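Most newcomers find our protein records easier to grasp once they have seen one. To make this concrete, we reproduce a full record directly below:

===
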Amino acid sequence: MPSLAGPVEFGSFTRHPRAGNTGKVAWRTEESRSTQNRIGLRNVGACDAAQFLAQRARAGQLTKEYGINIAVTPGVTDINDQKRDTIEALDYFLDAEVHPAWFTLNLSCPNTEDDPLHNQLANNMRLLCRAFVNRLQERADDRQIPLWIKIGPGLSPRQYHLIMQVAQETGVRAVIATNTLAKPSPDDDRQQAGVGGGELFPQALEAVRQLQAEKNRQGYDVDVIACGGILDGESLLAYEELGVKAAQYWSALVYRGPFAAAIIEHENAKLKRRPEHQAIQRESLA
């Protein structure tokens, strides 16, 4: 898979297994090349995931570069319980000698019938991120593994600025913007389902714009990773023009097929060779 798609991030995993939501949980909107899901963080739990990946690593079946995404357990609202759950999940992977290139702490899970907003407020985010980074630093063998965080779209500029400030304060190395956009599901407007792909793109792009601008204003040593609606060379270029160096994608695999990464990069390179783009780049450098 990495040979086709690039480095893979596994997850999200929670401290305990989750059955997720029942019934139909995924949809497509062809007109906007969007996806929507309310899978509900269905996963086997951090313990079993760690053992599975450890077995594959020992057998030489695991790529050397990958990430692991750990989510705050939905429904757990006490900050001390949230810290305990996420740190225990982290420890499962480290105890199994699973050493990814990065860990992501998912602070925004919009399709779990839970409100993840409080996880992205400055005080709670500061406590969770500091605990996670401190644990990584305590584990001598894992001192160099960076922490990324994943946040949601539709926050205020002030919130995005505070997220960058807290990330800098706590040693977070990158902010992924963004997770899916919570909207009513196509089958039941009483249920929330996360929208990705084309419909997410404008809000994700705005989030990246706010985060990158604050990074540049303050000189923060925190990378911004684009995520949301990267379906072609043009959408990737829009993020790159904001200064983003890396991106995550998923809906493109649905609409462009398994060679989506190569197709998008080829389209992106063609756009950059256009005279008008090169003129803009020269003016920017000047």
